[in-house]
Amino acid sequence: MILEGNTRGFGAELARHLLNPRDNDHVTVHGVEGFVADDLFGAFAEAEAIAQATQCQKYLFSLSLNPPQDQPVSVDLFEATITEAEQELGLVGQPRAIVFHEKNGRRHAHVVWSRIDVASMTAINMPHYKRKLTRQAHQIYLKQGWDVPKGFERFEERDPLNTSRQEAQQAKRTGLDRAVLKAMFQGCWEQSDSGTTFTAALQSRGYVLARGTRRGVVAVDAEGKVWSLSRWCGVKPRELARKVGDLDRLPDVDAATALARGAPSSDRAPPDPAF
Questions:
Q1: How far are the Cα atoms of 79, 86, 97 from residue 30, in angstroms, in the given order?
Q2: What is the reported pLDDT for 173?
Q3: What are phi and psi of 67, to 5 degrees?
Q4: Distance of CA 184 to the CA centre of its chain
Q5: Residues in Cβ contact with 154 at an 8 Å cutoff, skipping those fewer than 6 apart
Q6: Per-residue pLDDT at 166
Q7: pLDDT of residue 169
């Protein structure tokens, strides 16, 4: 199964997300351990209160466990995977909460640990956690006899239309398909041989090239949404800046939004994925 984790704060926001039934048929709090509270809001508020005595702002570690679409996974396997991840990440003995989500008969899981070691009142350091989780996930596929995603074998074989969680959430907020969006942005990039043709390709689809707040190159749509072109085109920021050229000539986000609003609404729909 795919293991995706990150350090984070804002425990109340995370609790709301985990308990939100809108995107799931069933939400089950499987266990809250090591906290005084026995509910997610209370547990994460407790972790935040303890963290205030430290310098740590990202006092939680959140891990999602997503099995293949066609593979039913038992609670025992989820628990065994969580225990192994806990050991790999150095979180053994830390307070944790486990939540199961189920949609269309498919179950996936989330586990959240407190990173604060109350004995030393410091945050547990978690070096290379992405690499450790990727290695563990690969081993699970092999042990279970599941078809191993190509990305585990060779990084360069990963599907270029795959999206990160952040990209998926941005696409979801627009109501558009993330693979279609990524294909559109990548197509604009690949068909362009200069900053001028890249700008024109984006404008024909209702996006205006702009200078981001950190001097990065972004695209802006008519609703004022900002799209990271490095992420959506799948290129390095330096390569992007080299093609675009002088960033100072680009409008800022507010000016680009005004320009985008001049495009017909029909032009803002992304093309077919075969583009």
A1: 10, 17, 8
A2: 62
A3: -75, 165
A4: 20
A5: none
A6: 62
A7: 66
Q: Please write the tens of the pLDDT for every residue from 73-114.
A: 899 999 999 999 999 999 999 999 999 998 888 889 999 999
In the block, residue with structure tokens 């809001």? 41
Name the CA radius of gyration of the chain, rounded: 22
Please give the distance of CA 59 from its chain centroid, rounded to a whole number.
18
pLDDT greater than 80 at residue 45:
yes
Output the pLDDT for position 61: 95
How crowded is the C-beta side of 260, counted as CA atoms within 13 Å?
Answer: 26
For residue 90, the model assigns a pLDDT of 94
- Half-sphere exposure of 85 toward its Cβ, with a 13 Å CA cutoff? 30
User: Residue 124: what are its φ and ψ, rounded to 5°?
Assistant: -70, 125
Taking phi over 0 as left and psi of -120 to 50 as alpha, with beta for the rest, 127 belongs to: beta
What is the spatial distance between Cα 107 and Cα 100, in angstroms, rounded to a whole number? Answer: 7
Answer yes or no: are the C-beta atoms of 232 and 270 closer than 8 Å.
Answer: no
Helices (H) and strands (E) in the chain, counts: 11, 10
Nearest residue to 130 via CA among 250, 274, 2, 238: 2
Q: Give CA separation, 33 vs 29, 36, 97, 249, 251, in Å.
A: 11, 8, 6, 55, 51
Taking 80 as the threshold, does the pLDDT of residue 165 lie above it?
Answer: no
